[in-house]
Amino acid sequence: MTTYSTVQGDTWDGIAFKVYGDENLMTLLLNANPAQAETVIFGGGVALVVPDKPEETADDLPPWRRED
């Protein structure tokens, strides 16, 4: 786990894209930072916990990305 310091104007999906490369993983950030769950647009300097990105398994991948 690491931390991320917000920049004025950051949003959950934007932060998820910056740290994971996938805005759909913003729920990981929300679950790890319940005290900030009501925040929509961040001010600068808020420290957020960033959990490790989960490993993708073959079951998580669409059929065309699976190795047979």
Structure write-up:
It holds the Pfam family Phage_tail_X. This is Tail protein X. It comes from Paenibacillus sophorae. This protein is α+β, with helices and mostly antiparallel strands. It has a single domain, classed as Membrane-bound Lytic Murein Transglycosylase D, Chain A. Helices cover 24% and strands 12% of the residues. It has two helices and two strands, in the order βααβ. It has a two-stranded antiparallel ribbon. Helix 1 packs across helix 2 (26-32). The protein is elongated, with a radius of gyration of 14 Å. It starts with a strand and ends in an 18-residue tail after the last strand. The model has no long low-confidence stretch (mean pLDDT 92).
In short:
With 68 residues, the protein is an alpha+beta fold. It has helices at residues 12-20, 26-32; strands at residues 2-5, 47-50. The chain has one domain (2-52): Membrane-bound Lytic Murein Transglycosylase D, Chain A, CATH 3.10.350.
Query: Poorly predicted ranges (pLDDT <50, ≥5 residues)?
Result: none
Strand order of the largest sheet: 1-2
Strand content: 5-15%
Helix/strand/pairing class, anyone? alpha+beta
Supply the CATH class: Alpha Beta
- How many domains make up the 3D coordinates? 1
N-to-C order of helices and strands: EHHE
In CATH terms, what is the architecture? Roll
Distance from first to last alpha carbon: 32 Å
Radius of gyration: 14 Å
Envelope shape: elongated
Mean pLDDT: 92
Task: Report the sheet with the most strands, covering strand number, pairing sense and barrel closure.
Answer: 2 strands, antiparallel
| Number of DSSP helical runs | 2
Could you name the CATH topology? Membrane-bound Lytic Murein Transglycosylase D, Chain A
Helix content: 10-25%
Number of strands: 2
Protein name: Tail protein X
Organism: Paenibacillus sophorae
Pfam family, one: Phage_tail_X
